[in-house]
Amino acid sequence: MNPVFERNLRQTRRQLFSTAGTGLGAAALASLMGESVTAQTKAGDGGLPGFPNFAAKAKRVIYLAQGGAPSHVDLFDWKPGLAAKYGEQLPDSVRMGQRLTTMTANQKTLPMLPAIRPFKQYGDCGRWLSTLIPHTGSIADDICVVNSMHTEAINHAPGMTFFLTGSQIPGRPSMGAWLSYGLGNASENLPSFVVMTSRDRENSCGQLFFDYYWGSGFIPSKHQGVQFRGTGDPVMYLSNPNGVDRSLRRTLLDDLAKMNEMKLADYGDPEIETRMTQYEMAYRMQTSVPELTDINTEPKHILDMYGPDVQRKGSFARNCLIARRLAERGTRFIQLMHAGWDQHNNLPTQLEIQCRDTDQPAAALVKDLKQRGLLEDTLVIFGGEFGRTPFGQGDIKNKQKHGRDHHGRCFSLWMAGGGVNAGTQYGKTDDYAFNVAENPVHVHDFQATLLHALGIDHEKLTYRFQGRRFRLTDVHGKVIKELLKG
Hints:
486 residues; Alkaline Phosphatase, subunit A; nine-stranded mixed sheet; 15 helices; 17 strands; globular
């Protein structure tokens, strides 16, 4: 049996035309354009031709994705008038038929619940923030707080998938994969897209981390995120097997590369090229990753800045420090995912713990980048998939057991560095923190603005799949220029 002949027999008309670009079609096109196919392939390894589309304000992104939805009412969006409305029913004129989750849809009343801790003004800008996040307050002049975010999502996984891929349905390329595809990899020894996860030690939030949060969808899989783990080897299967030393591994990889090159010549499958690329990256990471994750080389004052939890492997604090080290070494998109913000019935107890785990490390990351001259071209984002309701869930008179439900009509996030208009606040909600009142920012607007900061026109970064050109912002999105300088 000839496998090539058998494959050709089973090939459909669509498959024939879709792969023609790697054979005679590519050769003819290269001849007409006066270019070699090999040269085009090399150019693609460094990103797409013409990208970035214009001068970029940021070179890299550190996305501090907070799973479970931090409460904008309690942390970022100060509504002093809510104190006088404590326990009052949310007016129908404010709710306007907004759908609720099954957790509160049958609740007899929707009693207003003001912020559980006081707010105060921070920085020269006088930003009002909760006293639960004093370290974020210490960087008030470096951040832009967006209080007018909104989304259609009402449940966690669809909401986070929407932010990271542009669709509530899994299967699209994630944000980091898009940037790796469009801009390429700036580091020879580390992936262009790295992911780290953490959660609250109490395991109070049952939200899971799905690998499609950092997947590549239908674009080549070499652009998917590489997960660094908090236990064991930072990257799975990176260590050599017993009895295999580095020189033997090099020989094995060279022989494997030759066989893969033969298959690539026969089939033109981009996934074969992906395997070749990833094998080589893994070999280089055997040296680069142990050095990267050894935080003992950091001076004591830096470790102290991130807080005591930095010494615990897998913690948000330690991940923030490693994120800074990745940024120094050229990684383009660093995605930190932290779960624990889903306070349905433990808001009075768990919110403070969650803030203590994340507030100091996130602020330290911004300060650390700034003192090293990296903040000006590093875009840092802190936010969840939606917000929490300004009315209470459960018995709000029970000081230990009540909470807030999911709320996508309005919520907050903050951004720093990378050309962000620092020391500002954008957007406004109504007196109930329930609806956007001024300058709405949709999820797709946020994505378009992020890409713009990196020098990308969000309508031009596309990938053709199943007869359609897809993009991160789908068919929506506008750049919110007021969030950026200039």
